[in-house]
Amino acid sequence: MGQRGEPRRVQAHDGELGAAVARAQQGDEAAFAVAYRLVQPGLLGYVRGLVGDDAEDVAADAWLEIARDLGRFKGDGAGFRGWTATIARHRALDHLRRQKVRPRPTALEQDVLDLPGPHSTHDQALETLSTGAALALVATLPRDQAEAVLLRVVVGLDGLAAARVLGKRPGAVRTATYRGLKRLARQLGADGVTDDGPRTLGESI
């Protein structure tokens, strides 16, 4: 995650992922292992941002459901990443409810305008998001911002896919992502952070 093109590098594997999923749906266990290898790192990072140290157990529960329902999935590699993120999110929220941990309320206004501009906040924050300490910082963000950043940067979803996972409008996810990255950049001591944010994490929605 330490380089600026990570979401695109993740997406570059979508062709391989889609082919592996199609073979796995035909009963190819080796292909399922390939799909797991391509998806698990980002998925685990996302879940860790939601539930902390219990991430591996929650992710394992999610993969049990993914394997069970694999035949129902329809779509390509990018769609599979979004589908698995949705399942993992449900398992994480179930876990939080069982632990009686209430998500922090969001202050995000749903009708906020798009925020076009340079990529300085995005680039500076992404430089340090590969570390466990940075993921811990993500967990301190308001919940809407934390989830948006995790889905866009760690899982590598595009804006529309992230919006579908969260059940929100793309503009709201874009705004939450920008605000989260800007706050992270300040916390990480990035120099020269501007007040303008990117439309997305390096690409258009």
Query: What portion of residues belong to β-strands?
Result: under 5%
User: What is the SS-derived class?
Assistant: mainly alpha
Share of residues in helices: 55-70%
- Average pLDDT works out at 77
Order of helices and strands: HHHHHHHHHH
Count of discrete alpha- or pi-helical segments spanning 4 or more residues: 10
Please outline the major beta sheet. none
Low-confidence stretches: 1-6, 103-124, 191-205
- Give the N-to-C terminal Cα separation: 21 Å
The count of DSSP E runs of length 2 or more, i.e. the number of strands, is: 0
What Rg, in angstroms, do the CA atoms define?
16 Å
What global shape is seen? globular
Describe the structure.
The two termini are 21 Å apart. The chain is an all-alpha fold and 205 residues long. The protein has ten helices and no strands. The longest helix is centred in the first third of the chain and has 23 residues, at 29-51.
